[in-house]
Amino acid sequence: MTSNSFFRSAVRGCLVLVVAAVLLLASACSSSTNSASDVAQDSREAKEVVLVTYDAFALPEEAAAEFTKQTGATIKVVATGDTGTMLTKALLSAGSPEGDVIFGIDNTLATRALEEELLVPFQPEVIEGVPEKLRPLGAAGDLLVPIDTGDVCINIDQEWFATNGIEPPTTMAQLTDPAYQDLLVVESPVTSSSGLAFLIGTVARSGEQGWPKYWQQLKDNGVRVRPSWDDAYYSDYTVSGGDRPLVLSYASSPPAEVVFSEGERTEPASTVMLESCVAQIEYAGVLAGAPEPELAQQLLKFMLSPTWQQALPLTNYVFPVTAVALPEVFERFAPRAAEPLSIAPEVIAAQREVWIEQWRETME
Q1: What is a single cellular component term in the Gene Ontology annotation (predicted)?
Q2: CB-side neighbour CA atoms (13 Å) of 174
Q3: pLDDT, tens digit, for every residue of 101-142?
Q4: Among 59, 70, 270, 323, which residue has the fewest nearby CB atoms (within 10 Å)?
């Protein structure tokens, strides 16, 4: 090989090495750039909508996964106590909310949600499919979307009464009978939405003048008052191991006994005193100042979709507001009162705090 040919070969070899090095560097830079771009894109696409609600709420996980699939956003649940506490906290932070959507305001507290500019209107198409009779009237009708219903009723542990040879009560009047002394536990209307619903039911049943007397009779007969539904049902009710076979709960509680028994029960121990049932509707709304207002509207609409509505009975033990099929256990063991006790929303708004104060004077 001549010196020139050797030189050319050496040069070609160096060029090949240089080109290879450049290509490797370009490839590495490109890969690094793409990775950084992917991370940035993933960061931009990672969305979250925050649902503010009460402690007892159970997120329908499969429905939530479907929402994420459709929107790319995950649902984060922020639980802030019972319904009354949740609403009070939300009102205190109105305009700078903890989340995007609030759920769990019921018909006994709906007018409070109109205070402090807590909510913004929902998009009109959101509420399509919800029966008119469930929609709130007036200004609340533009802010609150009905999501579920459930009757607050006295539950009766039939097995306990059968074991103890006592005929169970069937009417609210009988709850003041000495035969049922120290057998009833209810929730406080000061701290519990179910307790407030029952108080309103007693006003509807006994009238403005008669209801304080009825509560005095309950007190004299040993009624126990607990701050929350969890306390009353899980600590005091005999079905849960407590010492009270009569509890203020829901018409949909008996199916839960069957479902949570994991096959040990084919029928619930409890029945429902239909005369005591008070209609309850739970609403959701978009919080003013929500960090994700568009996602909030999407979640509100999704909560009325068949996917979410069908999941409600066996996750939160409530009735859907749209026309979806109910689980068999609900059809069999969750009776609905033909005419549940109720009072017009405007009367509740005007008298709620007065009734609560009168109740406290009687019971505390």
Answers
A1: outer membrane-bounded periplasmic space
A2: 15
A3: 999 999 999 988 888 899 999 998 899 889 999 999 888 999
A4: 323
**Spatial CA neighbour of 211 closest among 29, 59, 343:** 343
User: Do residues 245 and 156 lie in contact, with contact meaning Cβ atoms separated by under 8 Å?
Assistant: yes
CA 323 to chain centre: 19
Distance CA 60, CA 303 (A): 10
Which residue's entry shows tokens 């109720």? 342
Give the Cα separation of 94 and 115 in Å (integer).
9
Give the least confident one: 27-31, 54-58, 187-191, 314-318: 27-31
Evaluate whether 212 touches 358 at the Cβ level (below 8 Å): yes
Single out the residue of 333, 229, 343, 341 nearest to residue 279, CA to CA. 341
* Inter-residue contact 110 to 196 (CB < 8 Å): no
Q: What is this structure's pTM?
A: 0.82
Give the Cα separation of 78 and 262 in Å (integer). Answer: 29
38/50 Cα distance (integer angstroms): 25
User: Where does 123-240 have alpha helices with state H?
Assistant: 158-163, 193-220, 229-230
Query: Mean pLDDT over residues 158-175, rounded?
Result: 97
Cα 83 to Cα 113: distance, rounded to the nearest angstrom: 12
Average pLDDT, the chain: 88
Q: Give residue for tokens 């009270």.
A: 244
Picking from 288, 284, 299, 291, the residue whose alpha carbon sits closest to that of residue 72 is 299
- The burial of 311, by beta-carbon neighbours within 10 Å (0-12 exposed, 13-18 middle, 19 or more buried), is given as buried
Reference 122, options 341, 316, 283, 336; nearest CA is 283
Beta strands in the chain (DSSP E): 47-53, 73-79, 101-106, 119-120, 145-149, 152-157, 184-187, 224-226, 246-250, 270-278, 281-287, 319-320
